[in-house]
Design goal:
The chain is α+β, with helices and mostly antiparallel strands. Helix content is 55%, strand content 13%. It has a seven-stranded mixed β-sheet, sandwiched between helices. Helix 7 packs parallel to helix 10 and helix 8 packs antiparallel against helix 10. The termini are far apart. The N terminus is likely disordered.
Length: 374
Amino acid sequence: MSMIRDLREAVRPTLRKSSGPYSAYGAYDTTRDPSASSAVVDCAVYRDGERVKDEACLNPHEAMLRVREGGGFAWIGLHEPTEEEFSGIAAEFGLHPLAVEDAVHAHQRPKLERYDDTLFTVFKTIHYVEHAELTATSEVVEAGEVMCFTGPDFVITVRHGGQGSLRNLRHRLQEDPELLAKGPSAVLHAIADHVVDGYIAVADAVQVDIDEIEIDVFSAPSKGSTRGTDTGRIYQLKREVLEFKRAVTPLLRPMQLLSERPMRLVDPEVQKYFRDVADHLARVQEQVIGFDELLNSILQANLAQATVAQNEDMRKITSWAAIIAVPTAVCGIYGMNFDHMPELHWRYGYPMVLVGIVGICLTIHRTLKRNGWL
């Protein structure tokens, strides 16, 4: 426990030495230029499912003061905060330094962790990248991250990446006061449901790309085309599906825990909704695993077709080499400078040799063609 306290002190600014209520919060110091960019994209207090319309609530410190005075909970949204910007918030809400480090540096695996009275949840957001044609370099999915700190009277969301904005989600929740009145756990559920709904949409779009690849591989090749030209596209799509899989699979266990294990920070009524999220996530996981296996089969089939096409080419080359070997051998023999050779001075020897060469070549050609070599 002493080690944890030391770690907390390392990230907690020394509030006792501050001369004003905001001086310990570097990103929210009252001396800061109001026009300067901030990691905070929204900060609000909610009571009884309604957003408190208070223009004075401009920073997390003020939000918590109003929560402690009048109840409710604070929801603070941040986008890619720096360590300096997040240090004051971490101190205000007593966030664990390990979770703070994960939230600032991102690139985390989806997970659910509990630190004292705070749940720390990591979600991977997936966005489908529209493309006119799938190529060997096409970006199919784009990943981002949403970290969520859930406490008894606060929710802090930290977003990384250009996708996965929670602005519309916040507005939809504000239109459902009955659900929002259940507290921070309702916000956590809404975020989880929003992320998983995004997975479902991406899975449907990726299915279309896989169907297109499958049709191209197993359809009859057009004139002049060769098998094996789709290998790069298949491999690129497989890599994108793998990134999708890394976002979906690790999240299933945290959603199951939230839906099955009683937690003090999760309202029992809200916990029922997590079951639906876990079910949807399990379905998406099955789809993604199926995508991976199907792409493996398509890739193997494409490589097999390329091998068969190469074998057919080699058989044709070998067949024509066998046909050409006949006149080559005959002409080579009669090209030797010997005085005594059969039919050398016969009047009809030359045309007979030509007729014999043509006849043998035609016989070989017919035999090879009948056997499918030509």
